[in-house]
Amino acid sequence: MKDSTDKIAPLVRQFLIALGEDPDREGLAKTPERVAQSLRFLTAGYSKNLKDEINDAIFETGSNDMVIVRDIEVYSLCEHHMLPFFGRCHIGYIARNKVLGVSKLARIMDVFARRLQIQERLTNQIAEAVRDATGAEGVGVVMECRHLCMMMRGVEKQNSVMTTSSVLGSFRRNAATRAEFMNLVK
Ligand code: ZN
Questions:
Q1: Do the beta carbons of residue 90 and residue 141 sit within 8 Å?
Q2: From the CA of 54, how far away is ligand 1's center (Å)?
């Protein structure tokens, strides 16, 4: 991790010069290191794996009802502009005798969110990871995000929220199950 921060910092310095800044002025003196460390944190998902994050926090349960966790905060970076997108993620699944600890859903999400992403792929990767971890018979993920690349530049649409969803298994096959999930997360 240290190595790659060491590699990124000099590039940020060059980047500041290319932008027309003076990287030696006081306010920017430590900026290359800070940006490098910040980028390492925001892309830490590349060096994480799901198995370690879940860490066996899977519990047996007798019931096979729908489990829903709403309003998990999500922060990611768009791969087209490397600008943040952020918002809320709702995850639901119908267990097949196995449920995940609630905090683990957020951890699974961050393995994929802390990378360069597009919202559609992020939504789908979370759904597949929850299915694979729990063996759930169905999974649904809805994500509602604002994209700074749209808000600060480009079309400058400050209030638009992009909604993506991914449904797998019984959530895809069964319209009533899907509707129940969508109702509960709205
Ligand atoms: Zn973008």
A1: yes
A2: 30
